[in-house]
Amino acid sequence: MDFGRLITAMVTPFNEQLQIDWEATGRLIDELIEVQKSDSLVVSGTTGESPTLTEDEKLELFRFSVRRAAGRAKIIAGTGSNDTAHSIHLSKLAEEAGVDGLLLVAPYYNKPNQEGLYLHFKAIAESTKLPVILYNVPGRTVVSLSTSTTLRLAQLPNVVATKECASIEQITELVAGAPEGFLVYSGDDGITLPTVAVGGYGIISVASHVVGAEMKQMIETFLEGRFAEAAQLNAKLFPVFKGLFQCPHPVPNPVAVKHALAVKGLNVGGVRLPLAPATPEEKDFVAALFN
């Protein structure tokens, strides 16, 4: 399974009542595939506000996204949680819904040790035939998958990739030690180019909602050996990468990118509590990124 170089971690559009807006969801999927050049979409990940989506909402999102994408892009279901048994349950239902792969975040709050992390991911991977992408994001989960644990999991036949948010050093170590066919993605837009430069495969991105085509061009330019041009593209994009997370004070993803989509003419609604909507100051800051 090739999920491509550019994967977008998709927001979940809401209406004024903060229920899923299916018309807007369809428009967003089309935009991300046709205009922003996403190879795959992660549905109901952290960017999709998975903590506040019900199981029924997640399953309908999986089914709807598979139908709407219609083979134009792969659909990856976010089915990870801090409850191994529930992740297994949801992963099986996602497989029945027809998704192409799973993204499994490291279990948050419980603070398992490395053996617990290994056994957690191993149990979920062995419960499904779908390809699995690990997701290491210690800034959100408190725990961090070590390089050795990730590479141990990479020996499992359907664990095919990792989304790494620890550091470029860890990405470099993973690339160096990875078995053939195991791919390393950055989960941090700001180090997309450095990740590809050290042998990573690509990016699982938030900024690609609004600058995906340019990000795809940057990656392809680098892979074609036009390094100076790729660096220039990175310099042009970097204020967007940085701004969407600073905004002008740090804001939780996906608050800023939802407003960025509205600035671009694609209204995807607000965010569910406990996330707070962007302030007028934050909205002005985001809008200025695209002027």
TrEMBL record:
Coiled coil segments of this chain: none
Entry-linked SUPFAM superfamilies: Aldolase (SSF51569)
GO cellular component: cytosol
Annotated EC: 4.3.3.7
Localization in the cell: Cytoplasm
Alphabetical keyword list: Amino-acid biosynthesis, Cytoplasm, Diaminopimelate biosynthesis, Lyase, Lysine biosynthesis, Schiff base
The protein's enzyme class: lyase
Catalytic activity: L-aspartate 4-semialdehyde + pyruvate = (2S,4S)-4-hydroxy-2,3,4,5-tetrahydrodipicolinate + H2O + H(+)
Subunit structure: Homotetramer; dimer of dimers.
Similarity comment: Belongs to the DapA family.
Record's function text: Catalyzes the condensation of (S)-aspartate-beta-semialdehyde [(S)-ASA] and pyruvate to 4-hydroxy-tetrahydrodipicolinate (HTPA).
UniProt protein name: 4-hydroxy-tetrahydrodipicolinate synthase
Organism of this sequence: Cohnella ginsengisoli
Encoding gene (name): dapA
